[in-house]
Specification:
The complex is a heterodimer of chains A (about 230) and B (about 375). Chain A is α/β, with parallel strands linked by helices. Chain A has one domain: Rossmann fold, CATH 3.40.50.300. Chain A is about 30% helix and about 20% strand. An eight-stranded parallel beta sheet of chain A has the order 3-2-4-1-5-6-7-8, with helices on both faces. The mean pLDDT of chain A is about 90. Chain B has two domains: about 5-200 and about 225-235, Thiamin diphosphate (ThDP)-binding fold, Pyr/PP domains (Rossmann fold, 3-Layer(aba) Sandwich); about 240-360, 3-Layer(aba) Sandwich (Rossmann fold). In chain B, α2 (about 35-45) links the parallel β2 (about 25) and β3. In chain B, α1 packs parallel to α6 and α10 packs across α11 (about 315-320). Chain B is globular and about 70 Å long. Classes of the chains: A alpha/beta (about 230), B alpha/beta (about 375). The interface between A and B is medium-sized, with 21 and 30 residues.
Chain lengths: ~230, ~375
Amino acid sequence: METSNTFYEKYALLVVLGHYGSGKTNLALNLAKKLSDLGRPPLVVDLDVVNPYFRTTDYQELTDREGIEVVGPVFGNSSLDAPSLAPGIDSMIREASLQRPVILDVGGDPDGARALVRYAPEIRSVENRLTLLVVNARRPESQQVEDNLMMIGAISGMTNLPIEALIGNTHLAEFTTFETIEQSLELLEELSTISRLPLMAVTIPAGLTVPPGSEDLYLPIERLVRTSWQ
Amino acid sequence: MSEKILMKGNEALAEAAIRAGCRHFFGYPITPQSELAAYMAKRLPKMGGTYLQAESEVAAINMVYGASAAGVRVMTSSSSPGVSLKGEGISYMIGADLPGLIVNINRGGPGLGSIQPSQADYWMATRATGHGDGHVFVLAPSTVQEMADLARMAFDLGDRYRMPAMILADGLLGQMMEPVEMPDPINPADLPPKPWATTGTKGEREHNIVNSLSLVSQVLEDMVLERNERYQRIKEVEQIAQLEHTEDAELVVVAYGAASRIARSAVNAAREEGLKVGMIRPITLWPFPTKAIEDVCATAQAFLSVELSTGQMVDDVKLAVSGRRPVSFFGHSGGIVPTPAEVLVAIKKALAGEVFHILPFHSKLEAGD
């Protein structure tokens, strides 16, 4: 299996999909920060129309600091529970480039991915794109290979866009240890073999030590999505 | 299953309810509790249970009444405006002495309010879940693990005392994710029998009647008084609170649910500065943990209630303190969550002997200096 913890550098468009609570928003923010550090501040599009809590548009302070532009639902940061998407997302996706990459942070499950359907033609028009399934093996509905295969099928079926790769994002919030992550590798490898989707990388909380020789596999990320008392 | 998994509060509560032997859920969707209903919709039909999205909250709570009368563990979940609608049905359940779990993932109000976290349903939960002389148990989790643990406790308490039980949480607890360890599942067949339930006489006993209507005044008064005796017994033995650093505390912060997470950060920050501050976290809101408050009155000089409201639980703190010590309040409303820094400022004010009821609108706290 060929993994590379710098895979995200090669794409103009990254579509982040997965189960509710797999860590899509935290991953999207981390990838955005990394691209920004490379001098290519991306545009992050918050396409989550299903959950009004813990979403990219909640982290304006961070994104402002990093020079990351966030496009959210029209009423995303208000108290109006109205599924709405910002205008102009079509052209933003079409104009994605290596210099100005676009990250789509999509809502959880097939329900959340439904918002992608109307952008499928634009997404297909971007040649170097990657649709990525985020897998947290410590989520109740992601613990088995079959559950993840069903999720892949259901999201692809809903969006009419094939999922092209996997990223391991197994964590237990602040209680994540290296063992938590190591224990998930077997599942990820089996899932990758059966689904024939490459495993791009496995995230690890920044600060945890990676065993020598496997640096390419692990993508260090920070915990940017937090509760207000942390 | 002993391995910890990462769950949302709403999911953990749903799974724990199933493991407590609940196989019947009647509800109506509303943010921010929808994951709970969605989880039940996926799981219950596979286990021979019932998930039903009713035509309204009023219908849902009356289905809960019916299922409970038939003796099964049953629940509904909603958020503030939806719980208002359930009020009549909850009162009928109280009047018919029926257990059942009602989950309120509190959002901002009044009216349609907001979908952001709030604790402004404290009064409704502890004073007026419905009309008449009655109460429900009110349990207030503050972690995802407690969302699971208190769900089971709510079913057990409800069955033991023949009363509805409510879990009062908020959007933050419902939506946030933390690792949880799920309790072992109970087979519904192994639950204690309910001899009062309407399960069919099979020609072997008198009819059981479940009803809240009583047209003879003396009969009704006897029933209300019997229920009131039960309430007094519950107030004696079922109060639960968590105490932190209260032994030497000059100021005791009282906070529940998500507000207690923020208050704890502020209390710990105060301790680091050498300030003698402690915290009481009510876990049962009804019965309110008056004993814990009375006990610390001996040593504490003042109290500070921190809530996501304009000040509701502070009334119960004052009743328990009973004039012996000053009680101050700090809170936010409208879905705004106080920051630990703001609470720390309020803590210092209270320690300095000030007595206040602060809402940022009329007295903005300068946090951080």
